[in-house]
Design goal:
With about 150 residues, the chain is an alpha/beta fold. It contains three helices and seven strands; from the N terminus they run H-E-E-H-E-E-E-E-H-E. Helices cover about 20% and strands about 25% of the residues. It has a five-stranded mixed β-sheet. The protein has a two-stranded parallel sheet with strand order 6-7.
Length: about 150
């Protein structure tokens, strides 16, 4: 499917999905947090989209909000999409896990938690995987204070 065909198909699922024109090679869809799981399942299970492979997942600190960016591919149709989800809750950021939708997200969710403090509801073993359990704070957030200058920016 072309970008415009994908956009037409996916936009028919909900009026709350927002498409962003960023000049990216991918179609970019912003998904409200409460629709994340439902949208992910449709992207994977709909025969026309068949996004069966999550090849990149990244946490992002946008300043006022935190987010996660997923890059998805259909190995059947060979089309790709970028899916973004945001939260304004910097104190207790959380999204539903997608580790049962795309198994590759299992460790990526741990990494995003480790560096950004974003929790993933119903993840089977969400924990730090790079930093020590005793580490205080979330070092890839823009408001992180590195008192001993351990991280070089």
């Amino acid at each position: 499917m072309t970008k415009s065909e994908l956009k037409e198909k996916i936009s028919s699922w909900s009026e709350e999905l927002n498409f962003v024109e960023e000049g990216s090679e991918f179609l970019v869809v912003e998904v409200p947090a409460h629709l994340l799981r439902e949208t992910a399942l449709k992207l994977r299970d709909d025969k026309d989209t068949a996004f069966d492979y999550m090849f990149s997942m990244t946490g992002v600190d946008y300043g006022e909000k935190l987010g996660v960016v997923y890059h998805l591919e259909s190995t059947t149709h060979h089309h790709m999409i970028e899916m973004k989800v945001y939260t304004d809750d910097r104190e207790n950021p959380a999204f539903d896990t997608l580790s049962d939708v795309w198994p590759a997200t299992y460790l990526n969710e741990c990494e995003v938690y480790d560096f950004f403090g974003i929790k993933f509801n119903n993840h089977k073993n969400l924990r730090r995987i790079f930093l020590e359990e005793e580490w205080k704070g979330w070092p890839l957030r823009k408001d992180y204070v590195d008192e001993v200058n351990m991280l070089i920016r």
